[in-house]
Please model this.
Amino acid sequence: MAKKTTRTAAGLRFGIVVARFNQRITGKLLSACTDTLARCGVAADDIQVVRVPGAFEIPLVARTMARTNRVDAVICLGAVIRGDTPHFDYICSEVSRGIGQAALETEVPIIFGVLTTETVAQAEERADQQQFNRGGAAAQAAIEMVKVMRTISGKDRKLESGEPASQSGRMRQKGKR
Ligand code: INI
Model:
């Protein structure tokens, strides 16, 4: 059955930072993420995808993107898999801390769509396109957070009602409301 399409996020702009490390997994997260944004009405031109070597590099790029004022939210996608590497714990803590800190500093929603798993099989399960995919969930969280931030800052109360973002923002700019 085809997935439902809505236009609730039309006009919103998103940055996606995706790690190349474990690309077989992160590629699937990215597809699910962009598919979900598109189904919610986000135009391809309003999505900027930036690739970085690994999850460790995500926070710097996410913070820089958030500071540009050209995106309403940033979505971070990666897959850190324990395997045998002692890197795992360092990378997980740095990425989560860095993403959280970047969001607080910039006051732009920066979504944690980074898998942290013990095994490749667990990561594959969470990136499965047919089932629950963390990339799609990250896109939904990003849209929701843009609306939450706009609502609490009083910038766009119309978004709460599900009206397309582009319409409510632009109409008000032109003084038609
Ligand atoms: N990067 C990942 O995104 N996932 C991993 O599982 C991983 N492991 O296992 O090492 C990983 N390492 C690379 C790291 O993110 C940096 O790119 C690298 O250390 C250069 O700074």
The CA atoms of residues 159 and 165 lie 6 Å apart.
